[in-house]
Amino acid sequence: MNKKVHNRKKSIIQVYARAVFSDYSTWTIVAAAIGSLVGMIIAFIKDNDFAPLAVITLISSIVILLIKSILNIVTNVSDTNAYFYVQDDEEYKTKAIEKVKDSLPSNYKVIGNHNIGHIFYDEEVNNFIMNNDISLNVSKERYTLPKDLRSLLPFVLKQTLKGKKVFTDDKKVCLQTDIEVGVKFVSVRQATYYDGQVTSEQSSKRIRSRRDLRFKFNGIDLIYDFDINKVKSLSNNSLANRIGGSTLAITSDNYAVISIQGNINLLNAGKYVVTGSGSMDYKDLKGCKTLQQFLIKGIERELHEESSAGFAIKETKLIGYGRIIERGTKPEFFGITYLTCSKDELRQQFDNKNKERKIGLVDDIIFVPINSLKEFIEKNKTFISLQLLIYKELL
């Protein structure tokens, strides 16, 4: 079985298991069963009168756990059909975007369109992260889904898995600190890919109950504080805030490397995209003391996985940061990676070794002279990703 397909099926099982055990009462029963088992072992070792009682308690705990798990599974399966997205809800989506845009301070710029999304950024912040190291604090506390969103997990999973799209519920990194001029350190913590799917990726949508047609979920409430008419900060919202990273590779003969996204990707299928892009993995944190070290390590990994350019990396520099409105104001960082190889050498390497093409994650790469990149982006603006569009502004 293809490894990615195997991981996809494994992730489905993991996500459903997490949905079942997100009910804390289940863990209480598990703890009771473990306690009963320990008590039974001690009672038998000491050969005292409590041994039969311990056996009965253990069996009872296991039976209750099984019943509770079955009920949770039935509930979660039922929840996959309990809701529906409001279709053609462009007016609501536009309202959410405009709310965010209108609340931003004047120093922020917003670029994008309704086809690819919108991102807001501050040029002063970009200059700051290019020239100042930011210390990294890794929290031991993992991100957990808010209680009011847990019931949506099976439904969102079902919607995500429609068609032949590929995802794996890998360990990711979420940002807990807002990136501002002068920030000395940022806090991050572990989340999973699907935490972001259930929270951030739903922020421009509305979900209704099939039972009474009431709105079960209004995405704008996740990103906008109506009490103070401002976008919620990363430190105060309840989203996973998965950190994204993108890089544009430049060959030694001054060509920008553009990828064509495969059709089984959840995002930007069939579009021109940057050379490497994705959510930062938790394993990328290992050995990193600063935010910049962590981000460069992560986007270089993505670059190699998607374009096979890892053999020729000379240097990667961070050049920008922004938050994507339609994706829960998701934090996204941008870099430039200079390669030691020419476009012809990279083409040969890509054709020979790129495993992603075998399962359709990356269809191909093309080469655009760096001095013609802005013209290429403008000419193909309806066929590019938001992450590629911003390079027109950053370069």
Task: Note the topology.
Elements: H1 3-20, H2 24-46, H3 51-79, E1 83-85, H4 90-103, E2 108-113, E3 117-122, H5 123-131, E4 135-138, H6 153-160, E5 171-175, E6 185-192, H7 193-198, E7 206-209, E8 215-218, H8 220-223, E9 224-225, E10 230-231, E11 244-250, E12 255-261, E13 272-273, E14 276-279, H9 291-307, E15 313-324, E16 330-339, H10 343-353, E17 362-369, H11 373-379, H12 386-389, H13 391-394
Parallel strand pairs: 4-6, 11-16
Antiparallel strand pairs: 1-7, 2-3, 3-15, 5-6, 7-8, 9-10, 11-12, 11-14, 12-13, 12-17, 15-16
Give a quick summary of the entry:
The chain has 395 residues and is an alpha+beta fold.
Question: If you had to describe this structure to a student in words, what would you say it looks like?
Answer:
This protein is of the alpha+beta class. The chain has helices spanning 3-20, 24-46, 51-79, 90-103, 123-131, 153-160, 193-198, 220-223, 291-307, 343-353, 373-379, 386-389, 391-394, and strands at 83-85, 108-113, 117-122, 135-138, 171-175, 185-192, 206-209, 215-218, 224-225, 230-231, 244-250, 255-261, 272-273, 276-279, 313-324, 330-339, 362-369. It has two domains: 3-79; 83-395, Nucleoside Triphosphate Pyrophosphohydrolase (Alpha-Beta Complex), CATH 3.90.79.10. The protein is built from 13 helices and 17 strands. Strands 2, 3, 11, 12, 13, 14, 15, 16 and 17 form a nine-stranded mixed β-sheet that branches. The protein has a three-stranded antiparallel β-sheet with strand order 1-7-8. Strand 2 and strand 3 form a beta hairpin. The two termini are 42 Å apart. The model is unreliable at 1-6 (pLDDT under 50).
